[in-house]
């Protein structure tokens, strides 16, 4: 039995609903990174990062590649950075509207 498209979309957005996963995707936008590099940037425990990377792998958003003893991660699609940019643009618009509303409230 296949799931409805709207349900698949909801699951996809639930995957993106964690700050660490968003930050990992942002960091991987420019280049693949080793797990140790991600750990240094995120200041997380290895087990926490591993858990979040597993969620992103299952969702098909990142892919691992072993090089010697080091594990590298990269985004699976050039559309992932585009998605992050669109999200930033939408959020900027929303926050700009809220700032304008706040300024209006302060004026009256």
Account of the protein in words:
- This protein has 108 residues and is α+β, with helices and mostly antiparallel strands.
- The protein has a domain at 5-76: Winged helix-like DNA-binding domain superfamily/Winged helix DNA-binding domain (Arc Repressor Mutant, subunit A).
- 65% of the residues lie in helices and 13% in strands.
- It has helices at residues 5-15, 19-27, 35-42, 46-58, 79-107; strands spanning 33-34, 62-67, 70-75.
- The model has no long low-confidence stretch (mean pLDDT 92).
Which properties best describe this structure?
single chain, alpha+beta, globular, 108 residues, Arc Repressor Mutant, subunit A, 5 helices
Low-confidence stretches: none
**For the record, what is the CATH homologous superfamily label of one domain?**
Winged helix-like DNA-binding domain superfamily/Winged helix DNA-binding domain
- First-residue to last-residue Cα separation: 57 Å
Q: Roughly what percent helix?
A: 55-70%
Element string (H = helix, E = strand): HHEHHEEH
Spatially, the strands of the biggest sheet line up as 1-3-2
Question: Count of helical segments?
Answer: 5
- The counted number of beta strands is 3
Residue-averaged pLDDT, rounded?
A: 92
């Amino acid at each position: 039995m296949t799931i409805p498209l709207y349900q698949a979309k909801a699951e996809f957005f639930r995957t993106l609903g964690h700050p660490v996963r968003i930050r990992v995707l942002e960091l991987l936008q420019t280049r693949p990174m080793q797990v140790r590099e991600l750990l240094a940037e995120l200041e997380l425990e290895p087990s926490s990062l591993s858990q979040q990377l597993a969620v992103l792998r299952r969702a098909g958003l990142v892919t691992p590649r072993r090089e010697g003893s080091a594990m590298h991660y990269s985004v699976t699609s050039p559309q992932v950075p585009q998605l992050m940019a669109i999200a930033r643009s939408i959020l900027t618009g929303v926050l700009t509207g809220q700032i304008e509303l706040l300024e209006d409230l302060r004026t009256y």
